[in-house]
């Protein structure tokens, strides 16, 4: 009587079907390796809008657009930039300074007529409440400023924890350092971000166990009872299984998240002059605040921050040696007049040199933009995973008024920098075919950072995301 040579459950797994069995683990592991890197959000505000030259020109450049004067310090970062044009705020009030900054990242109307605070949380706080963006970091979020003394005034805040609940900026780098890095010992290796692991056996354990079930010797014995065609099929399965084992070994064990290429360093916070009228000292002040944020991210102290420059309607009287009008105010005599001086005929004095209002506005705007570029380049210089920290960080930059400081909610200038690993379609100048609500853009940001259940944002709770922002 012939011996029955039935495949046992184990023998079945030890053929090429073993590869099918292990494939889900491999796919899950690959996905986990991608998602173990933290997601980060950095909101940025700069004052008094931008001149129209802030928008790039179409054609040329690295990604089909060319940066102009205000953004020349971003040269080299074009593959990380996403311009979205034809986005409007949904409502306005008076000269839009207070309405613009209130809804900038909240999408809300005023909480009341007395304070003019926003009537709901900002994007960063929504994410902290509805996603695991914080991870295991000891500090939930940080809020810094330069070129402004901060405080909780309606024109000085961009982040809200809830209706009528502004989150004030910290202007003093020394105090910010203490708040962020209390208890940190510097000089050691950068701590790896702690991944959130599911309950039960780890993927490494599961893969190892599945690999232990593979006994190629036993399969070889089975071959003696097979016909030629079945033997050839089994040989193909065995080759695949050998390759699978090599892949498992190449993965290494245990699985650890990639460590960032930056080091957890102590930031020198000395030498700050808090005047909002000196561009040289503002530059130093702003870079220290940026260094604090980058190191907070590198040390994994926090993954959510906002950085404000000046305030809505900032004047910065006499900065850069400005002499113009009755009060030497950048807001009154440069930003306000620029829109009406496209022929470049009106002159002002900068440090004793005559220049046009338009060129002065470009120079004023570049001062602030250069600080955002500095921060972005610092993040891009930190290796993380297969890319950089900027690939895992979204810088979401906005201003309170439409293009050319027109006191209008139309043609708002939002710029997204970084976030490639979150699906943001960076490296493009997205000129929308029709005007769209800023609420849709905010919804896309929520989706990219993990809150995919969001159907809308602010006073448009069902607006949906904006096409073209996420892949």
Q: Specify the helix fraction band.
A: 25-40%
Using the coordinates above, name the CATH class of the largest domain: Alpha Beta
CATH third-tier fold name of the largest domain: Alkaline Phosphatase, subunit A
Count the domains: 2
* Annotated CATH architecture of the largest domain: 3-Layer(aba) Sandwich
Structural class: alpha/beta
**Count of runs of 4 or more consecutive helical residues:** 12
Largest sheet composition: 7 strands, mixed
Give the N-terminus to C-terminus distance in angstroms.
Answer: 63 Å
Characterization of the model:
With 471 residues, the chain is α/β, with parallel strands linked by helices. It has two domains: 73 residues, no CATH class; 320 residues, Alkaline Phosphatase, subunit A (3-Layer(aba) Sandwich), CATH 3.40.720. It contains twelve helices and 16 strands. The protein has a seven-stranded mixed beta sheet. The chain has a three-stranded antiparallel beta sheet with strand order 9-10-11. Helix 2 packs antiparallel against helix 6, helix 5 runs parallel beside helix 9 and helix 9 packs parallel to helix 11. The longest helix has 24 residues. It is globular and about 100 Å long. The N terminus is likely disordered.
Question: Which key features would you list for this structure?
Answer:
471 residues, Alkaline Phosphatase, subunit A, 2 domains, 33% helix
Write the SSE topology:
Elements: H1 9-13, H2 17-35, E1 40-45, E2 57-58, E3 65-66, E4 81-88, H3 97-103, H4 123-130, E5 142-146, E6 160-162, E7 165-166, H5 173-181, H6 203-212, H7 216-223, H8 228-251, H9 279-298, E8 304-309, E9 322-323, H10 330-338, E10 347-350, E11 353-356, H11 357-380, E12 383-384, E13 387-388, E14 393-398, E15 414-418, E16 428-437, H12 438-448
Parallel strand pairs: 1-8, 1-14, 4-16, 5-8
Antiparallel strand pairs: 2-3, 4-15, 6-7, 9-10, 10-11, 12-13, 14-15
Helix pairs in contact: 2-6, 2-8, 5-9, 9-11, 10-11
């Amino acid at each position: 009587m012939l011996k029955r040579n039935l495949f046992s459950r184990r023998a079945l797994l030890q053929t090429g079907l073993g590869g099918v069995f292990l494939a889900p683990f491999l796919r899950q592991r690959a996905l986990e390796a991608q998602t173990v890197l933290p997601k980060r959000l950095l909101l940025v505000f700069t004052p008094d809008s931008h001149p129209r030259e802030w928008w790039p020109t179409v054609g040329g450049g690295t990604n089909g657009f060319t940066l102009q004067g205000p953004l020349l310090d971003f040269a080299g970062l074009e593959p990380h930039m996403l311009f979205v044009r034809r986005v409007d705020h949904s409502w306005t009030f008076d000269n839009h300074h207070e309405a613009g900054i209130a809804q900038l990242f909240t999408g809300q109307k005023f909480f009341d007529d007395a304070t003019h605070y926003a009537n709901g949380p900002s994007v960063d706080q929504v994410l902290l409440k509805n996603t695991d963006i914080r991870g295991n970091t000891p500090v939930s979020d940080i809020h810094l400023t330069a070129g402004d003394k901060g405080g909780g005034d309606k024109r000085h805040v961009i982040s809200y924890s809830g209706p009528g609940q502004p989150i004030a900026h910290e202007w003093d780098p020394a105090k910010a350092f203490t708040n962020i890095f209390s208890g940190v010992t510097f000089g050691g290796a950068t701590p790896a971000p702690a991944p959130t692991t599911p309950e039960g056996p780890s993927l490494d354990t599961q893969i190892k166990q599945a690999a232990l079930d593979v006994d190629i010797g036993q399969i070889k014995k089975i071959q003696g009872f097979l016909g030629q065609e079945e033997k050839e099929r089994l040989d193909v399965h065995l080759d695949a299984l050998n390759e699978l084992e090599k892949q498992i070994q190449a993965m290494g064990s245990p699985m650890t998240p990639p460590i960032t290429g930056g080091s957890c360093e102590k930031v020198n916070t000395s030498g700050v002059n808090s005047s909002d009228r000196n561009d040289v000292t503002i530059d130093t002040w702003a870079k220290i605040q940026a260094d604090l944020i980058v190191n907070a991210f590198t040390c994994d102290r926090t993954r959510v921050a906002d950085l404000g420059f000046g305030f809505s309607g900032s004047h910065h009287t006499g900065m850069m040696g400005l002499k113009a009008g009755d009060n030497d105010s950048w807001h009154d005599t440069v930003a306000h007049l620029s829109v009406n001086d496209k022929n470049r005929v009106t002159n002002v004095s900068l440090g004793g040199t005559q220049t046009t209002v338009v060129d002065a506005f470009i120079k004023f705007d570049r001062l602030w933009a250069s600080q955002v570029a500095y921060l972005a380049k610092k993040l891009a210089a930190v290796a993380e995973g297969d890319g950089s920290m900027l690939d895992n960080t979204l810088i979401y930059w906005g201003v309170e008024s439409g293009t050319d400081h027109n006191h209008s909610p139309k043609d708002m200038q939002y710029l997204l920098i970084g976030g490639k690993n979150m699906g943001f379609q960076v490296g493009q100048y997205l000129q929308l075919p029709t005007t769209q609500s800023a609420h849709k853009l905010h919804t896309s940001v929520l989706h990219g950072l993990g809150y995919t259940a969001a159907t809308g944002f602010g006073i448009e709770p069902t607006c949906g995301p904006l096409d073209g922002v996420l892949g």
